[in-house]
Amino acid sequence: MNNRLQELTKIFIEVFGDESIVLDYETSSSDIDKWDSLNNMHLIVAIEDFYKIRFELKEIQSLQNVGELCEFVDKYLEG
Amino acid sequence: MPIVILGFFICQKIKNQSISILWLISSSLFFYGWWNTKYLILIIISVLTNFALGLIIERTRSKVFLILGLLFNIALIGYFKYANFFVDNINLFIGANIHLNKVILPLAISFFTFQQIAYLVDTYRGQAKQYQFLHYCLFVTFFPQLIAGPIVQHKEMMPQFKLGRFYSLRAKNLAIGVSIFAIGLFKKIVIADGISVYATPMFDAAEINVQLTFFEAWFGTLAYSMQLYFDFSGYSDMAIGLAQIFGLKLPVNFFSPYKALNIADFWRRWHITLSRLIREYLWDPISLSLTRLGFKYRLSSVSFFLLATIVPTLFTFFWVGLWHGAGWNFIIFGLLHGSFIVIFNLWTKIKQNYPRVKIIKNRHVVNSIAWIITFVSVLIGWVFFRAESFTGAKNIVLAMFGYNHITLSPYLLGKIGPLEEVLLQKGFKFEGMFGNGVLGNEPFTAIQMILFLLVSCLVLPNCQQIFSKYKPYISTYHEAVFAYPKWFFWRPTIKWIILTVFFFMMALLSLNKESEFLYFQF
Fold first, then answer.
1. Of the candidates B288, B313, B353, which has its C-beta nearest A57's C-beta?
2. Domain boundaries, chain A
3. Which class in CATH covers the domain with range A3-78?
4. Is the ipTM of this complex over 0.90?
5. Which residues form the Carrier domain (chain A) (predicted)?
6. pLDDT per 10-residue tile (average), chain B, 522 residues
7. For a tag site, which of A41, B230, B260, B432 has the least CB within 10 Å?
8. What are phi and psi of B474, to 5 degrees?
9. Nearest one of B398, B362, B367 to B380, comparing CA atoms
């Protein structure tokens, strides 16, 4: 699980160009300045691309925090 | 209005929820029919058809029926809202001479059509549960929100209809509801209608090519920005207040939009329920598929930005513009805001690449500059939003940027020393700041009032903040911190009763003047 968080942190840093980003399960879009609806899709697709998975739109829209993001990724990698 | 509340109160005594709901639906339809009985049938057909389609889609998950439903709604709004515009342009461009009788725009058609489109899409995605017919009717027609928003979503309204809270009239809800309503009424009748006398003449003058002065163009536009905000947000407050009287919560539609420090934030604060609708059903799906496309073909950063940011943003804002009305000025308004968003995005990208470069260090200075850029962009957008023709809008924007020279007061002549020479050389003139009289006989009183309102917008808390202890609304904007003194917050005290009565009295005293809700035609 912790591994997943590290991988995601790398993607976040790359997409938002901010080395100082530290993620935990509770991190949400209000904690990261640049994480808004404009950048969200870029982030999501970067994650899809890294794991070679595809989220559903309603999952993306219901996303509350990084913890849920991890769960979605796990769900797709297991299934 | 009091009859509706009284009736609701009686229904509640009977303790039959269906009767209470029926009462509210028929009152809503009554209000709607008051305006135009013919279109009453239209809204009823729209509700019945969409409910039936919803049932079918839920059972079958058939894409065919979803598309049918979308076509039905788009045809409805296409005919009633955009047919004239479309035919006019065809005639203009290919010189045809198609004649179409002027279609009168049905009240609130955008609101009830898009709410139902969202409902059908959610049903197809399996995000809408089986709803009772009466609940559905109330969701669409509920009169406080029907005419000018907020645009409600079924997933936030339907669950409330099941709660007992809704069916009982409570003193607390009544007190809060009436207070919010009074604030909204005051904003609309006293402030918005009051300031409109400084906005309308300027826009009228621009249409007939009057040479507006620099200051007239700026203050006229500023006056309009105040009129529009207080009108529309006042209306939304009234809707929230009314709904609260019946124990229902509506989503917040405005969160001090003129405090925004960037244009993206402005759209998170302005007409929030429209922005989120557009975001969920237009922006998200389009930008998701285009971003995937960009990743798939490993585009370079420039083409990626073009495909994944510029295209979806302009496309989305094109529709935001058209949503507001069938006219080229609205399309320009939309595209203008789309471009602002693109530029803002580009700017954040540039900042990302040079994180260490900071030209100005002082946070307050940076924020002030950011606010000015944002607010001026918004003002220029409003010019196109309000002006009746492109020529009118062009005249105003040119005057704002000093095209007609900047004219100062002749009283300054001989009093400012060597500065006079410099200004004359730069093209300034001393022929009076307000030569056309569009700000009335006492332009400086007008300016004081406009600036007073602007400052109020920037320093005062909004309705959501004032009532934050009771949350009589659904939050739609999350502000990190706000520190206002305690007395800003509403409490059931004598002070707030007096204020509420004051708001009502002021509104009633101004009511005899002719008044019109700006947003009725959308």
1. B288
2. 3-78
3. mainly alpha
4. no
5. 1-77
6. 67 69 83 78 87 86 87 86 80 71 74 88 82 85 80 85 72 86 89 86 85 86 93 91 86 90 90 90 91 87 87 93 86 94 88 73 86 94 90 88 75 72 74 72 82 86 80 77 72 82 81 52 42
7. B432
8. -100, 125
9. B398
